[in-house]
From TrEMBL:
Family that this chain belongs to: Belongs to the UPF0065 (bug) family.
Species lineage: Bacteria, Bacillati, Actinomycetota, Actinomycetes, Micrococcales
CDD domains, A to Z: PBP2_Bug_TTT
Source domain of life: Bacteria
The protein's name: Tripartite tricarboxylate transporter substrate binding protein TctC
Gene3D superfamilies: Bordetella uptake gene, domain 1 (3.40.190.150), Periplasmic binding protein-like II (3.40.190.10)
Organism, as annotated: Brevibacterium permense
Entry-linked InterPro entries: BUG, Bug_dom1, TAT_signal
Length: 345
């Protein structure tokens, strides 16, 4: 189980030496190629000394415009507005469900002035891509926020409830076409969990992955797909405009400002997956540096700028650190791996 280091301790490399060695060679090479000349990012030779807030790098393990990129840049902005980090910079290392960025990050031993965004998609990416590196090759810092998927259809769809959807789906499981984010993403897994609750074999799901909510909506409107599962903040404006219909949200309660959209649980389908996001520290950073990074993240989380970001993006605060965060990662990994197995992935 991944563990957050206690104050004053460092993360040991001895627990998974073979995975770490492979990660340095294979993923390090891939990630360096991915960076190429596309960014001005360069690997620092040693960890920062003194005040880490003076020069902090935030890695988004995805391309510009995606969920991780948005999370990292909202964090950067909150740090800047409240002067919590004087020179916070965001670097994008996209690919393979976040595992290209994770692989690169796993080689940055002791580099305490760099942190990596993580979350549900990385949990899926590690399992789906059989990544040689995982959370054990990092320092767990904090789970910060989560957002929820919403089940949508074209605005003129005759279906209005989850029961309507399940009923139509059962008549022709493989002919019923879904869309959402990448294979193994929280969008895909939400649909898998809904299928299992509706007594539909997950292996019968026909799923067309797209890069985001905008592309998914286009397939709905063109009739290429029947339904989509997307992050609520990705499609909320289209729901408001009436272009798409929200049938149910995978949240514990209704989303503020969208009180007419019922949860899936209200409709008898306990879909429990959330799209959580958080931060990892590099392997082998000291307990003092880990504590300093947590202090910066805690102050960012408590800032007015971050509270505004939560409201604008319809994110929920889920702050967790230490053993509580480590236990959550273990449970989430188990849940995601089970769903991927059901999907035959």
């Amino acid at each position: 189980m991944p563990k957050a280091p206690p104050p004053g301790d460092s993360v040991s490399e001895s627990s998974h030496p073979s995975r770490r060695t492979f990660g340095r060679i294979a993923y390090g090479a891939i990630a360096l190629a991915a960076i190429g000349t596309a960014t001005t990012y360069s690997v620092k030779a040693a960890s920062a000394k003194g005040d880490l807030s003076s020069n902090l790098t935030l890695i988004a393990p995805a391309g510009a415009g995606g969920g991780w990129d948005g999370f990292a840049r909202e964090t950067q902005q909150a740090m800047r507005v409240d002067r919590l980090a004087n020179n916070a910079q965001v670097v994008n290392i996209p690919g393979a469900g976040g595992t290209i960025g994770l692989g690169k990050f796993s080689t940055m031993h002791g580099q305490s002035d760099t942190i990596l965004a993580t979350g549900t998609a990385m949990v899926g990416g590690i399992a789906l891509n059989k990544s040689p590196v995982g959370f054990d090759n990092t320092t767990l810092l904090a789970r910060v926020a989560e957002d929820y998927d919403v089940l949508i259809a074209a605005g003129d769809s005759p279906h209005n409830t989850i029961d309507d959807v399940i009923g139509a789906w059962k008549k022709d499981p493989k002919g019923f076409v879904w869309t959402g984010g990448s294979a193994g993403s929280v969008d895909h897994l939400t649909i898998a969990q809904l299928a299992l609750l509706g007594k539909i074999p997950a292996s019968d799901i026909t799923y067309i992955p797209k890069s985001g909510g905008g592309e998914a909506i286009q397939t709905l409107l063109s009739g290429t797909t029947d339904f989509a599962s997307c992050g609520f903040n990705e499609v909320s404006d289209q729901i408001e405009a009436g272009r798409v219909k929200a049938i149910g949200v995978a949240a514990p309660k209704r989303i503020e400002g969208f009180d007419d959209v019922p949860t899936m649980s209200e409709q008898g389908y306990e879909v429990t997956l959330t799209n959580w996001r958080g931060w990892l520290g590099a392997p082998d950073i000291t307990g003092d540096d880990s504590a300093q990074l947590l202090e910066i993240l805690q102050k960012t989380r408590d800032s007015a700028a971050w509270k505004d970001a939560l409201e604008r993006n319809k994110w929920t605060d889920v702050w967790q650190t230490g053993e509580e965060f480590a236990e959550f990662v273990k449970e989430d990994t188990s849940r995601v791996e089970k769903l991927l197995k059901e999907l035959g992935l």
